[in-house]
Design brief:
The structure is a single chain. This protein has helices at residues 14-21, 25-34, 36-39, 55-71, 75-87, 95-131, 139-143; strands at residues 12-13, 43-45, 51-53. It is mainly α. It folds into two domains: 8-88, Orthogonal Bundle (Multidrug-efflux Transporter Regulator, Chain: A, Domain 2), CATH 1.10.1660.10; 94-154. Strands 1-3-2 form a three-stranded antiparallel beta sheet. A hairpin with a 5-residue loop joins strand 2 and strand 3. Helix 1 crosses helix 2 (25-34) and helix 4 crosses helix 5 (75-87).
């Protein structure tokens, strides 16, 4: 199998993976061991010797957990099923596409949340500034209302 090139680098530690998957670190290690041949290209160690998982590794482990829960399979059987999925993929939907979409989705969700918090912060700043405007400058409120009429921005 070829190395999968990630579009957006997504690095996670063992702790991060445990939180993302909702399982213990020990359970993550067991799943990593079950998929060791598939994951070896996507796991490295940092300067503190912690395991670092790329976005591809996160995707594969998440898919393993989905198979295990959906089909109520033991981890080793879910790993065999995942290997079969990877070998017999449809021609039009490759693993690169699936991983790229998964990583993009996660990245976009974080970006939207960041933008929303920035919007709320600057909206608060605008309201605070407008509340201390002298009476002869109140016309500024009409130019820059604290909330937009455009519902897409709220």
């Amino acid at each position: 199998m070829e190395r999968i090139v990630s579009i957006i680098p997504c690095m996670a530690t063992l702790d991060d993976l445990a939180r993302k998957l909702g399982i213990s670190k020990r359970a993550v290690r067991f799943r990593v061991e079950a998929l060791s041949d598939l994951l070896e290209k996507y796991i490295s160690r940092d300067e503190r010797n912690r395991l670092i998982f790329t976005g591809e590794a996160v995707f594969l482990l998440r898919r393993l957990e989905e198979l295990r829960l959906e089909e109520r399979l033991p981890i080793r059987q879910a790993a065999v099923r995942l290997r079969g999925e990877l070998q017999h993929q449809e021609a039009d939907a490759t693993l690169d596409d699936a991983i790229g979409l998964e990583i993009k989705l996660e990245y976009l969700a974080k970006a939207v949340e960041t933008l929303r918090s920035d919007r709320d912060y600057w909206r608060g700043v605008a309201e605070a500034i407008q509340s201390v405007l002298p009476p002869d400058r109140m016309w500024i409120r009409k130019l820059f209302p604290p909330t937009s009429d455009d519902v897409r921005l709220n």
